[in-house]
Every structure is written in C-alpha cells, then in structure tokens.
C-alpha cells in the first residue's frame, strides 16, 4: 500500500477567507478552539525558519515536483497521529501554519506585492462568532485589537519566511541536491506501508557541492536547514509506531 504526501494546496483548512475590515467584520469575535480541524492532515506545509523545531518531532520532507515545498509528515494515511480529541501531543512543536489559523495574509490584487497583502480571517471557521461569551474582540472601537495586531505580525513573519523557503527550494533543485525517495515500513501486525511522492536531500550531493555554494548556503542558513531535515528522517520510525497504536485500518489515499 502506498501513500503520497503532497504539499497541501493553499489555503488548506480555510473555508471562506476574507480580508479583515471594520465595516464588514465589526461584530465578529473569535472564540477558543482546538486542533480537531487538522485531525485528517497527512502533512503540513513547513517553512525554513522552523526546521530546527520540526525536526525534533516530525519527518521533514520535500513535496515532489518542480516547485514542491517542505512539509512536516504527520501520518501515513489520513490520520494526524499527533492530534487526539482536538489536542496536539504534549511537548510537541505545533507547525506555524496551524498556529496562524484562522488568520492568514491575502493578496488584494492578482499581481499584489508583499506590501499589498492584507490580514484575512476565515469567517467559515467554527471559532468565528458574534457571541461575546468567552470570545475575543477583533476590534477595539475603530482600531484592530491587540490580538489582531499580534496575528498580523505573526502572519507577516510567516509569509516572509515562506518567501525565503521558496528561494531555498529553488536553489536545492538547481544544484540537483533533492532526489526522489520512498519510505517503506512494517506495522507490528505485519502490514506493509509505503510512503512515496516526496524528495529528500542527498547527503553525498550536499557534501560534494562547490565551495562557493557551501559558503553561500551556510551564510543563508540553508546548510543548517538541510542538516535538520536529514536528522528529522530519524522520526519516521516514531511516526510508524504512533500510527500502529491507533486502532483504525490504514487507508490507501495514494
């Protein structure tokens, strides 16, 4: 049985994202939620700046194709093994993509530059409400609330990191460092699992890079990111073990 982790198409998890504005969303508030919305996520988009944190808990792979970005592998089928009853596994780093939801940045025009993006809110999220009970206001008078300003900063930093990630992935592919790979595992009951459709850094190709590239990538932090990625492959067996503990048949989603 083969499963294929692919880079989730944007906007994963979002139902009805809208640019947040006072006129349209004055009465909207945000209530507390959990991570149940990620319970069927096989993988999550990852960005360059979180490779170190991700590598401690998840395999970090690269989605296949000419423009596939990095992903954190969360399961071997449509079950996120790190979420139980809406609660993320204790002491595990939660990917930034998840923590920014239901906010994000949205282009205001088809050819928008980064400064032309606006903070968006997924008004289709079950966390969105007009009930003032146990909820957070998004506006304080005529101004965005402190919480909204904090989320704008977080989403802006995430988007800036995503641009660096795109640049890094293009460089890795241009130098031929990324190679197709398949992972095969066996569950305790003997069931075989194959994970394919992704790429990894070839350690030898990385070592064989010319000195100028190595120095440049060290300066940019890309060499460190590659090392964290390679180290994260040790988490594959942990992932298989966690999936084996879930008493649900493996689904073939490939």
Structure overview:
This protein is of the alpha+beta class and 254 residues long. It has one domain. Helices cover 31% and strands 24% of the residues. The chain has eight helices and 16 strands. Strands 1, 4, 5, 6, 15 and 16 form a six-stranded mixed beta sheet that branches. Strands 2-10-9 form a three-stranded antiparallel beta sheet, with helices on one face. It has a three-stranded antiparallel beta sheet with strand order 11-3-12, with no helix packed on it. Strand 15 and strand 16 form a beta hairpin. The chain is globular, with a radius of gyration of 20 Å. The N and C termini lie close together (8 Å). The mean pLDDT is 89.
Biggest sheet details: 6 strands, mixed
Count the E strands: 16
SS summary, helix count: 8
| Measured distance between first and last alpha carbons | 8 Å
Order of helices and strands: EEHEEHEEEEHEEEEEEHEEHHHH
Instruction: Work out the radius of gyration.
Output: 20 Å
Structural class: alpha+beta
Total domain count: 1
Uncertain segments are: none
Mean pLDDT: 89
**Spatial shape:** globular
Beta percentage is 15-25%
> How much helicity do the residues have?
25-40%
